[in-house]
């Protein structure tokens, strides 16, 4: 009995889900070629609750998308024939189309937020809460009011420094335009995590106010009940709900344009119903109240919508241009130019009334007309294009490309606006970063002692030349970076001392740009080896490893860098009583391949199917420091790609010690020929430091290693570049006691290295080879 009751209850709730469905509903694109056709469609729009128009029907010479339900197929065919409409079937079964795009089931956990899917209001708000917790110094969240059904409307404010001017983004006032809200959150996420200097610039120098979901009731309704819903959810007649929030603002509320077009509807059941009065909706009223309180902070107001690839400026209710339309056209064109660069999608820029259709009471008209915010755009994003015809139902795999287009557009907007209006007092791209445009890199042969002395003198006295290898002995090649102002000087020196030299790179900046990380999203699974990753991403990944493999991954923080970054050791131990190998990577900041190789190897140890790799992962314990010099590494990513040293101050004008010259054993000890193999000059790239272990980084490793050293037989330091396996010592040619063994093992390693891509590694004593 009880069981039956349970089953009955289950059965009941199962069939009672009231969801609008669109099985076999068709979507047509219809061309409006004349006044009569326009009137026909307007009549249909005004009188029918069967046909669902996705565009306004008021304008001649445009196409509108309309949803036709099965019971109207015959009527529709009659109308099409009678008035000779041209049309195209875009979707033949709307429900199938909606089903394909339903969010996938997902786990509920921290870090739930992602952009592979459209997210629920709950997930978005939870994510906003995490941002507030993680970035308390520059993220503020304000609840600006409640929706009709009592949901909170949130503004996220990003302010990274004082006295910035601000840009306001309002997204998804139209419930079904899911891409609008997803783009708003994506952009916010990029502001926090992007490595792109232009994105960092606009995140730093502009304050951003973002309402990701302006119409939370409507949005939830599209997720639970009717994917095609546009309006708010307040009751407006006996049988209809909802007001078009973007027709509900006060400025020129329900005002017809010069051709008599209202640009909104007075009929409650219509999708563009303007509401009983301006700001009748709690959502629009909350926004208006909030904007009025902080109006003076803004120069730019943006409203995110879909679809149409449009950048629209005021007004919607008049066919005449606003007085400063040229400025808005210029800035819009700059946005469109940047947007186009991502995926060659061409956005059209123009006056709302002309480019789209007449509309009265939209938010941007109110912000521009009532609050005098000088730059106001509605952005209509992707929907139908060369990538497919999806209308409001853009699949979630387009979120990221769409958002990157908009983000790039924002960069265009800010850079153009600052030129025209002088409102943003910074220049994009000028964040102080070392550049090497037209810097040349030469390889120089050292054929005699005079040449050696010349290069040593340059290395010790010049801060414009930069050596990639220290000149130490006759017979070697060294690589040197020559800045443009030294081209003549370099040429003179080369001729005077008859150096043999080869130009390796004509333009060092170009070479560096190729290795710059691509833009990336911040989410779990962010780690990959298509790019060099930030310290943050690497450490986050290490955290995931620890969580996912608690039985054999241990992570230890062994100390802090000079600037306070953690130095982490990842320990992999799959069984007891293994002997261990230690890998220390990237003590030299610019040698990015070292750290990337260390993490790659660790990843292979965990995931490779190769039995030989599985063997060494199982039977050896591995201790890996992926980034030994985190300050230097971050500095190469943000400021100077060519940086080698740590970041501690060492003289009035110079920073950094060569960590790999800072260990105690034979610290600053000359070899038999008197060569130090390190520098005592603070500004030098091989400066050994004021004393051994002067650097917190090397001290941390030393302290850690002295606790665990009895577990190890092998210590490896990863560097680049030269294809060499070097063993001790660096300061003498005298062979180490176990030279034969260490040479044999090195040869075996070199043989395996060669077997992968035929790269020849040289094995030998450091001093002899380098
Ligand atoms: Zn919209």
Automatic annotation (TrEMBL):
GO terms for cellular component: extracellular space. Keywords: Carboxypeptidase, Disulfide bond, Hydrolase, Metal-binding, Metalloprotease, Protease, Secreted, Signal, Zinc. GO terms for molecular function: metallocarboxypeptidase activity; zinc ion binding. Its cofactor is Zn(2+). Residues 1-20 form the signal peptide. The keyword Aminoacyl-tRNA synthetase does not apply. GO terms for biological process: proteolysis. Its main location: secreted. Coiled coil: none annotated. The keyword tRNA processing does not apply. Transmembrane segments: none annotated. It comes from the Eukaryota. Residues 117-417, 531-770 form the Peptidase M14 domain. The active site is at residue 380. It holds the Pfam family Peptidase_M14. PROSITE patterns: CARBOXYPEPT_ZN_2, PEPTIDASE_M14. InterPro entries: CARBOXYPEPT_ZN_2, M14A-like_propep, M14A_act_pep, Peptidase_M14. It is found in: Secreted. Involved in the digestion of the blood meal. Belongs to the peptidase M14 family. This is Zinc carboxypeptidase A 1. It comes from Clunio marinus.
